[in-house]
Amino acid sequence: MFTGTAGDAGDGGIGGRAFDLVFFFGSSAAAAFVGVGLLLHPAWTVPAWWLFTLLADGPHLFITATRTYLSPDDRRRLGLALWLAPLWLLAGPLALAITKVTGSRGPWDLFLLFAAVWSYHHVIRQHHGVLAIWEHHAGADRFEARASGIFLQGALWAMIVVYLVVSPASRLTLGLPTLPGSGERAFVVAVLIGLGAATLVWLLAVVRHRRRTPARARSWRPIVFALGPVGAFSAFNLFVVGAHEPLLARPPNAEQCFLAVTTVGGLVHSFQYLGIVLATNRRRYQGRGRSALARLGRAPILGYLAVTGASLVGYGLLNGARGVPGVAFFGLESDASRLFLGVYWGLFFMHYQLDQIIWHPSRDPALRVELGLARSS
Asked: Which of 8, 59, 241, 244 is within CB 3.0–4.6 Å of 35 for a Cys-Cys bond?
């Protein structure tokens, strides 16, 4: 999500110490608590998914508009790229049309695979972006920032590979036997050993490097963030919650085989993103303008309530149209539900694309100030 380099320490955080504790550390603790609740009470899975969808996932999607289409300054700055992003809405309908013409599910399945891979990649990039900000505030040099970024992204990709091999839900959706074979088990053991070794090497290298540079800031927040709210939480979600999926009895499609994992992991991703946008908007509009967007930007709670209102209506209807637990306006495998599923993923592709454009603090001095990476002049 973010790209940039570490530099001189800023004012101490993205939105302030208490704000950051809630959105970037507390969100993982709260999501883990939800995960335990779902394991103890699987019947809560569908209500929890709906609450996550309407109160976290939808708002995190719609709040991107406050950094793009709703802002005159951003519209001028982003130019043509902003107006090309909606072309992603055509990807799903096009894949569906090719599937209908050819009579093969291949194009549609490839579209869904692309959606799943880009979605996970987007989550990893956001974790890396937040880590880069903590590294900045800790005064990390290029070696430490690069080593931590490579470790974090590699570890998260290794975890999802292992999950796909060992998870009963993923094996079910991939058409594999229920239990992994001997070769698959050996592969998983090798990956886990490699992951453990990489974690140890990274941790020792970073700690040793820090001790050699005593003049630098001594904040251990980046290491704590990587190991706890990201690493340990991801392992819990994939290998503890995920080991019991599908929690939903007799899931009608592949997506509903992963409702608990999606809910628990999505809570962290969504609230991290909401925290980033609310904090940057508050800095951007402090003492500036009397427009509705500026007023919402200066008031994070009102800003969140505004995008949540849009989510309750627009996102709720879209999910009902594509077919989700408890609400399905059309048959799950009907062309109508697939069409709206394509639109649903198209909106996320827009979100992913826009994020790759708007979060570049190394190129945007104003954004550096808004992220707390530099002081305003």
From this structure: 241
User: What is the tally of structural domains in the chain?
Assistant: 1
Residue 278, token pair as written in the block: 């609310």
Residue at 2 is within a domain = no
Terminal Cα distance for the chain, rounded: 26
Domain, as residue range, for 104: 17-370
Question: Rounded CA gap, 114 and 137, in Å?
Answer: 35
What's residue 122's pLDDT?
Answer: 96
Tokens 């920032």 locate to 145
Phi-psi region of 9 (alpha: psi -120 to 50; beta: other; left: phi over 0): beta
Dihedral in degrees, nearest 10, Cα atoms 30, 34, 40, 45:
180
The 8-class DSSP code of residue 228 comes to I
* DSSP code of residue 371: T
Q: What is the pLDDT of residue 5?
A: 42
Of 168, 130, 185, residue with least CA distance to 13: 130
DSSP assignment, residue 327?
B
Q: Are 61 and 347 in contact (CB under 8 A)?
A: yes
CA–CA dist 279, 367 (Å, integer): 11
The C-alpha atoms of residue 256 and residue 248 are separated, in whole angstroms, by 7
- Mean pLDDT per 10-residue interval, the chain, length 377 residues: 44 78 94 97 95 96 95 92 95 96 92 94 95 84 88 96 90 83 93 95 86 63 91 96 90 88 97 95 85 90 94 94 88 90 96 94 88 71
Query: What is the per-residue pLDDT for 230?
Result: 96
Spatial contact of 58 and 310, defined as CB atoms under 8 Å apart: yes
Those residues whose C-beta lies under 8 Å from the C-beta of residue 12, and which sit 6 or more positions away, are: 137, 372
pLDDT (tens digit per residue) in 94-111: 999 999 999 998 899 999
**66, part of any domain:** yes
- Integer Cα distance of 278 and 301 in angstroms: 9
Q: Token digits for 187? A: 């592969």
On whether residue 44 sits in a domain, the answer given is yes
